[in-house]
Structure formats: structure tokens, C-alpha cells
Amino acid sequence: MTSGLDDLYQDVVMDHGGNPRNMNKVDGAQRSAHGFNPFCGDIVDLEIRIDGDSIADVGFTGKGCAISRASASLMTEAVMEHSTDEAKAMFEAFRYMITGQGDGSIGTEETGDGSDLLGDLEALGGVADYPTRIKCAMLGWRTLMAALNKEDSAETVTTE
Ligand code: ZN
Predict the structure, then answer these.
(1) The domain 27-151 is classified under which CATH number: 3.30.460.80, 3.90.1010.10, 3.40.50.2000, 3.20.20.370?
(2) Does the predicted TM-score (pTM) go above 0.90?
(3) Which protein residues have their CB within 5 A of the ion that is ligand 1?
């Protein structure tokens, strides 16, 4: 029998949740942000090294549920060595997939429906059916945006 939970915990999510990628500090990081999801207790501390306008390295530490770890892990793989603008576009595409809300940049002629940006991140699409887990899935991304949008300092973001 297939249930929604099976969809939620797809193999790729289980894989990244159990064995997160880029779960480490970043040498020479210029930017960081602390993310906290009080509804679940998830914590993501993100560090980024920027080279020009691209993300040369990104890593995270912290603790949280499988969804928050998997999402942060998939996020670091998605944005690694991409430009900060591409990372922001991925954030918008991901947010649109999970929450149905975006800034209007998704669904345009230029970006399509955003799905081409998401790759493995689509494995988290099932989270959209579980409102209590959306904040878990968004935490890593919100923390990334906080770090990217604030230069040379640490930023704190919560999902409230
Ligand atoms: Zn969580």
C-alpha cells in the first residue's frame, strides 16, 4: 500500500536525511546565518564562501529532523558552485513547490515552471501535503537566503 508518507520519505530524502552532504564548517567562510525552527526544534547553522558572484563552498551544522537535514543537504548540493542569483532562483522554485507561493519569478517564460532548477530537490515535493513539515523543509533555504542577503555578518532567521 502506498501512502503519502511513503511519498514524503522517498529514498533520496531518507538518504540525505540519514547521511547529510556538506555537513561541515566552511574554511574561509565570509557569510553565515543561524536558522531555527521552533515548531520542530530544527537548527541549521550555515556557512558560505563566496568567490566573485558564485558560491564556492557551502556547508551546514546543527541538528534536526530528517526532513530538515535532508532539505539542507540537498540545498547545499544544489547551490554549490552556482551563482548567488541562481541560488535565489532555486529558492523561489523550491518555495513555490513546497508552499505554492513565490515572488512571481517562477512560471515565467524565462524560468519555466522552475522544475528544471530543482533536480533532486523535487524529492521533497511531497512535503507540501504536510503543513507541519513545510517549515522543516524551508529552514535550510531560509537560512541560506539570510546569509546571502546580509554581507559580512551573521544573521539569524527563524521560521516563525
Ligand atoms: Zn523538523
Answers:
(1) 3.90.1010.10
(2) no
(3) 40, 42, 65, 68, 136
